[in-house]
Design a protein that fits this description.
It is a single chain. This protein has 112 residues and is mainly alpha-helical. The protein has a single domain, classed as Ankyrin repeat-containing domain (Serine Threonine Protein Phosphatase 5, Tetratricopeptide repeat, Alpha Horseshoe). The protein contains 8 helices and no strands. α3 packs antiparallel against α4. The protein is globular, with a radius of gyration of 15 Å. The chain starts with a helix and ends in a 7-residue tail after the last helix. The mean pLDDT is 79.
């Protein structure tokens, strides 16, 4: 069963990219779901996968869901402190302090 992508000549990287960036009905993709559930292992795997596919990992950190939430906000809403710390450590390395403040700390979802 796992050989079907080769049989139908599907490019594996394209398939991985499509799976990684697929959004569900609320505009969440895997990164948001991992933060929402507080899954550090999933966040780490998605980060590695994105880097392998040469995706812009900065975008993972600040991409919003359909209602304007970032992964940081989703983790905060659900009291996933360890996840928040992990996301923040990634942010500290990737974004300058003003970008962190403007894109995450002061960002608002569709409810304000």
């Amino acid at each position: 069963m796992w050989f079907w992508p080769e049989e139908v000549q599907v490019n594996r990287n394209k398939l991985k990219r499509n799976l990684l960036l697929a959004k569900e009905m609320n505009g969440h993709f895997a990164w948001h779901q991992a933060a929402l559930g507080g899954s550090l292992e999933a966040l780490k795997s998605i980060w590695i996968w994105a880097k392998e596919l040469e995706l812009n990992t900065d975008e993972l950190l600040i991409t919003e869901t359909g209602n304007g939430c970032t992964a940081f906000q989703l983790a905060a809403e659900n009291d996933h402190v360890e996840t928040l710390n992990k996301l923040r450590s990634g942010l500290d390395r990737k974004l300058n302090p003003n970008e962190v403040r403007n894109n995450l700390v002061l960002s608002k979802d569709s409810d304000g």
